[in-house]
Each structure stands twice: as structure tokens, then as C-alpha cells.
Amino acid sequence: MTALTLSTAAAPGLRADAIVVGVAKGGKGPVVAPGAEAVDKAYDGKLADVLGTLGASGAEGEVTKLPAPAGFKAPVVVAVGLGALPEKDETFGAESLRRAAGVAARTLAGAKKAAFALPIEDAADAGAIGEGALLGAYSFDAYKEIGKDAKNGKAPLGEIALLGGKPRDAAYKAAVARATAVSEELNRARDLINTPPNDLNPEAFAAVAQTAADEHGIKVQVLDVKALEKGGYGGILGVGIGSAAGPRLVKLTYTHEAASKHLAFVGKGITYDSGGISLKPAGHNETMKCDMSGAAAVLAAVVATARLGLEVNVTGWLALAENMPSGTATRPGDVLRMYSGKTVEVLNTDAEGRLVLADALWAASAEKPDAIVDVATLTGAMMLALGNRTYGIMANDDAFRSAVHEAAEEVGEPAWPMPLPDHLKKGMESPTADIANMGERYGGGLVAGLFLREFVGEGITWAHLDIAGPAYNEGGPFGYTPKGGTGTAVRTLVRLAELTAVGDLG
Fold this sequence. Notes:
Number of helices: 14
Strand content: 15-25%
């Protein structure tokens, strides 16, 4: 696990494998960013010229390595691009710092220690750099032999020292503690998403949640198949009935004695999605281990909230099932009686996420929380609408939708508000049941949101995050985002908990 520390050491005398500096894109070439003054001085004030000669421009994500100056104990200087130089009297934004730190940490895989001499104006900057570096240092090596002679890859960067930090300052210490807690839990979510489905079925996921909760004083309740049958959770059972690995509903409860508000987070946890009887076509199955990303995000967010000791009560609901075709699987045309009592005609068994979420949403609603936020890799339609780096936000309250959007943008998770047009409800009318699990093809992501809204308790504020696009990165790594599971929505949920704790969420 990568360590994060604050350091007042001078760059020349620090023992490390590399010194990381920032370089911005100026009008006449690269510009050395604040924080690297000692390094620039050792190059006789000509570090920008040297970098320009080597082809560096300061563009975001750009990395240039060069030998450290004489007298430095670190052998290498790593210059990482921060993007455009800020306007006069402005500073580098938090997301620019996060991304640059992430690129540097990823580049330094295999190193034991690196010193980051990036721009730090205040504790928030230190937190952003620390978070980006810890997220960028992530790698999933559980199924590889990593070692000195291994050909499969390098171990993550071992230690990150933030130069220019203030180790004795309470705000700086809090920023580093927050960055560590959030990043470690987000990386836990990434590990879950990346774990092969033969090793992570609903029962195994529930066991991971139990262990994490026990470690951090969170109460856990796990409903197995018998308990789900007794409780009438027809949606979760209907999706999981075709698998040899039975479904689970996990409830995580974090409480704070000074809390006056209660948030509920609900996560879709399909540990593998074959599509069921409505089998997915070839080429669409290989990454379906990621269909539990919403539940992974909820688990990570609840644990991070507990680690930070936030003054808010948070309940997490993990709706876990494996969607498989078999002789016992739900068929298109079957009718399920949901936990709410409402009946649903299943027209497509590959629209299963909304079924497990519906039961969990109704269970969450029974506790009358101040707000519910569900997270799910729900629809391919949302990917078509917003691409693979932005998730959609739907809600039954415009102000709450805006608040969630602002929180997402603040923490660096691209998101976009989406509508819930009532006229699309007509497409889900069923001659057999109260509602069908499919509607019009066009606007499919919005139809799914409208379906979920039917299972939110009356008068409860609710938002739905469709993270189908950014939850799993099939391309190359960028910024602090690795290939594979990304942990999208964890930081948004934690930020919502923080805002609620201080009364700023409304």
C-alpha cells in the first residue's frame, strides 16, 4: 500500500528515487510551476529551457525525465505537465493537480519513494496532490507474479512525500488523512471491480463488505436467499434465481452520535451479467464483471465516511446478484412481485439492474432518510448519450440534482444532469402487471430512471447516478485513472456525506 507523507525537506537533500516537478504550458514555451524553485535553481534557473529542448510543452499528462542536478540525492527529475498556465492572480485547479500527480505516480511504478514538488498554496492543494498520487499509484496485481524478475509489471510506487507541506499544521494533516482514506477506499472499490467473477459472487462480495465493516465499526446485516424469500424481495430473487450462486442484500449502517441527517446510498451489485435468458451478444460479455461497480462504490463510500468520522448517518445498501441463464432463470414474460408489492413484467432479462435496485430502494425508503442516492452501471443508452467518461444524474428534485452535479464536478468526477420526462412512462405500461421493466428504445437511460423513481418512497428526495460509461476503462490509463475498474462515484458520495454533515446540502 502506497504511503503518503508531508515533508519540509529541501529537494536537493532528500533521499528518493525521483523528484516530481510541475511544468505548465505558457505562451512562449514551458514554464516551471511553483514548488520547484529549488530544483530550477540547481539548473541555474534554466530548467524550462532544458525541458523545452527535450520537447516538453507543459501539456496536461506530458512526462519528461531528466538526470537530477549535481548534488541531488535523487537521481532523476520527473517533469509532469499541468496544462495551461493559470491567468494572473489565479492558481492551478485541484483537478489539474490531481491529474498531474496521478500521471507522475503511475510513471514511477517500481520506485520505492518519490518527492512531489508540485504547487501547494494551501491544505486543499496538498490533499488534491495526495489523492491524485495515491489513485495514480494503483495497480491490480492479485493475479500476477510481481517481483524484481517478473515480466508482468512493476509494483506501485511505495512512498509519496509532499514537499512544501506542513506536517504540524492541522489543516494539512487533515487533508492528507482525508486523501488517504478516500483513495484507499476507492482503490478497494477498484479491486472489487477488477476481481474475476469466479472469485467474486454475491456471497463473496458480502463477505468482503462484512470484513471491511467490522474493521471500521460499521453495523452489517446480510440477507441470504432464505431471508430474501421470507421478506418478499422478488426483484433481487428474480434476477439471481438462475445462478448457482444465490443473491444477497447487504445493509451497512454508519451512525454518528452528533448526526442530525441521514443519507442512504444504494448500489447495483450484479457480480456478473450474462444478460440472463436475454443473452448478451458476443463481444459484450467480457467486461461484465464490472456490473457491480455501483455496489463497490457504495461500500467504499460508507467505509470512507466512517474512517473520516463525519457527523452524518449513512446507510449503504448493496443489491447483489449474478444474472445467469439456466433452467431456473427468470424468462421474458415472467411477472415478479417486488418488495414494494408492485408487480413487474420482465420483458428483457438483461434489464436486470433496475429490478435489484427497485427492491433496495424500497427497503432504503422504509427508513425515511433525508435523501437517497443510487449508483449503477445501468444502461448502454447513457454511454451513447454521454460517452465513456461522464455519468448521468437524474433526480426527483431539481435542486438536489444540481447539488449532486456540483459535488461531482468539485471532486473531479465528470457528470451531467439528465431529465426524467413523464411522457416516457407510457412505454412501460403492461397489460399484465403494474409496470414493465422496459419502455421506449430511445431515451432508454431516462426510462430506467423513471422505472426506479416508482420505487422511491413518497416525499423522499432521490437521485440516480448512471455510471455505465466511466465505471470501467477499457482504454489506456489517463491522469489518475487506470485501465479497468475506476471507482467512479465514490468521491461524489463521500462529498455528499461531507456536505450533509456540515449542513450545506440543503
